């Protein structure tokens, strides 16, 4: 097996992303990026923008004609994750929009999200100095030579680059993404079958219940925050409760919590690790909603993992 990819989870609110090309592929990349990271800071460079991407940006923030005069754009949104046309302020929004983009005469669109993200569109062809304003660069134009020029510029400026039509030139691949509350799953097939990544994402989305997954992780956080003792004791106790969780899912069977109890307490008894006073609900038992974990079988139950 030759699959040496190393996954990492980027904080896109702390990085500047440049996407070159805004057609079908640019739209696909951006729709997944913005869905997963509505707080992302994105600059798009492309002479024209595809209708689907325009709709994604326009529909989600309501009406408003695109304008080349950024000062005529207005702030409107309230909803987290939704994009709204907003006033570009080179100085005030300096942390959001690179000054070079805010001052660019090609500025053709600007949207912000309530989550703190922004999308800035420069309607012109790529220039190699564009990479200077970015930490991460995605090239998604329909011209191989333009994509290659993006790669060359990114590499000479030591920026990380994704070149959508040439996996061999990519520093990183974009993956399929599943989000369930605090749980984020990224899927890659090492570039072999993006369609499988998409299908596997859809399967996970269907199998992983939103509410239960979220409440399980929220409760585990509460449980974790309440633990006392040294690092080893905490690891032991957390392994104890989650070991029981994995055992229940390993066979694919739903968890069999005794009525009114939960896996935390069952684990506390069988592993005699955390006392029931450490259970997140103070003994009432709410780690798992009644009916238990209904996700897919756990792939393995290695110790201490
Ligand atoms: C290497 C990589 C680089 C990168 O783009 O990061 C790459 C490269 C290429 N994709 C191509 C084609 C398609 N890509 C998709 C879809 C997705 N592609 C994504 C990622 C990646 N695609 C990276 C590897 C990820 C991995 O390791 O598995 C996903 C997961 C994430 C995302 O795009 O955000 C997203 C699914 C999101 C979702 O739905 O969850 C579909 C299906 C569809 O659109 O329905 C098709 C058509 C069917 C097919 O070919 O499978 C082509 C040929 C282009 C051509 O022929 O012209 C190349 C270039 C080549 O392989 O040479
Ligand atoms: N990685 C992936 O998942 C996939 C990659 N691809 C590849 O992605 C590439 C892009 O395809 P589409 O989006 O369908 O093309 P498209 O024709 O829909 O869009 C091209 C975009 O590039 C922009 N563009 C053209 N010249 C430019 C320049 N000099 N500077 C900046 N932007 C410029 C255009 O304005 C437009 O926004 C193709 O080469 C295709 O092989 C295709 C499917 C999936």
Automatic annotation (TrEMBL):
<dbReference type="GO" id="GO:0019354">
    <property type="term" value="P:siroheme biosynthetic process"/>
</dbReference>
<dbReference type="InterPro" id="IPR036291">
    <property type="entry name" value="NAD(P)-bd_dom_sf"/>
</dbReference>
<keyword id="KW-0627">Porphyrin biosynthesis</keyword>
<dbReference type="InterPro" id="IPR006367">
    <property type="entry name" value="Sirohaem_synthase_N"/>
</dbReference>
<dbReference type="GO" id="GO:0004325">
    <property type="term" value="F:ferrochelatase activity"/>
</dbReference>
<feature type="region of interest" description="Disordered">
    <location>
        <begin position="271"/>
        <end position="305"/>
    </location>
</feature>
<dbReference type="InterPro" id="IPR028281">
    <property type="entry name" value="Sirohaem_synthase_central"/>
</dbReference>
<comment type="pathway">
    <text>Porphyrin-containing compound metabolism; siroheme biosynthesis; sirohydrochlorin from precorrin-2: step 1/1.</text>
</comment>
<protein>
    <recommendedName>
        <fullName>precorrin-2 dehydrogenase</fullName>
        <ecNumber>1.3.1.76</ecNumber>
    </recommendedName>
</protein>
<dbReference type="Pfam" id="PF13241">
    <property type="entry name" value="NAD_binding_7"/>
</dbReference>
<keyword id="KW-0520">NAD</keyword>
<keyword id="KW-0560">Oxidoreductase</keyword>
<dbReference type="InterPro" id="IPR028161">
    <property type="entry name" value="Met8-like"/>
</dbReference>
<feature type="domain" description="Siroheme synthase central">
    <location>
        <begin position="180"/>
        <end position="206"/>
    </location>
</feature>
<feature type="compositionally biased region" description="Low complexity">
    <location>
        <begin position="272"/>
        <end position="291"/>
    </location>
</feature>
<dbReference type="GO" id="GO:0043115">
    <property type="term" value="F:precorrin-2 dehydrogenase activity"/>
</dbReference>
<dbReference type="Pfam" id="PF14824">
    <property type="entry name" value="Sirohm_synth_M"/>
</dbReference>
């Amino acid at each position: 097996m030759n699959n040496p990819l190393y996954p990492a989870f980027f904080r896109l609110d702390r990085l500047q992303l440049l996407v070159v090309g805004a057609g079908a592929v640019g739209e696909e990349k951006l729709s997944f990026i913005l869905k997963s990271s509505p707080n992302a800071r994105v600059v798009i460079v492309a002479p024209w923008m595809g209708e689907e991407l325009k709709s994604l940006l326009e529909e989600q923030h309501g009406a408003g004609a695109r304008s080349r005069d950024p000062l005529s754009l207005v702030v409107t949104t309230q909803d987290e994750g939704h994009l709204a046309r907003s006033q570009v302020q080179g100085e005030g929004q300096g942390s959001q929009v690179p000054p070079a983009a805010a001052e660019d005469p090609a500025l053709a669109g600007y949207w912000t999200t309530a989550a703190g993200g922004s999308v800035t569109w420069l309607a012109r062809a790529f220039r190699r100095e564009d990479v200077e304003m970015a930490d991460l660069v995605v090239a998604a134009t329909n011209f191989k030579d333009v994509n290659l020029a993006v790669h060359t510029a990114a590499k000479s400026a030591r920026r990380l680059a994704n070149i959508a039509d040439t996996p061999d030139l990519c520093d990183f691949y974009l993956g399929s993404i599943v989000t369930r509350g605090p749980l984020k799953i990224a899927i890659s097939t090492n570039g072999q079958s993006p369609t499988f990544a998409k299908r596997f994402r859809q399967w996970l989305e269907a199998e992983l219940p939103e509410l239960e997954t979220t409440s399980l992780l929220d409760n585990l956080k509460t449980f974790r925050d309440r633990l006392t003792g040294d690092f080893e004791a905490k690891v032991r106790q957390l392994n104890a409760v989650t070991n029981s969780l994995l055992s229940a899912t390993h066979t694919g069977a739903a968890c069999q919590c005794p009525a009114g109890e939960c896996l935390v307490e069952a684990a506390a008894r069988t592993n005699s690790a955390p006392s029931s006073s450490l259970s997140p609900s103070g003994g009432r038992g709410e780690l798992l909603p009644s009916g238990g974990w209904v996700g897919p079988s756990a792939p393995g139950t290695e110790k201490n993992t």
